[in-house]
Design a protein that fits this description.
single chain, mainly alpha, 2 helices, elongated
Length: 60
Amino acid sequence: MLDLRVPSGWFFLIMGLILTALGVFANYSAPLTTVNANLYSGISMLVFGGLLLWLAKRAS
């Protein structure tokens, strides 16, 4: 049976890659601040997706 962490990890990893690329290349910022929200949320999704995949690999 497939562990739920594997598809969730891939989902967060792919979404994190997309948001990180948008944050780096598109250079958008949130409307009322100078914070690049796409970059920071993309990096956190990359870390979370990698953590899920690492935990799934460690458990098998």
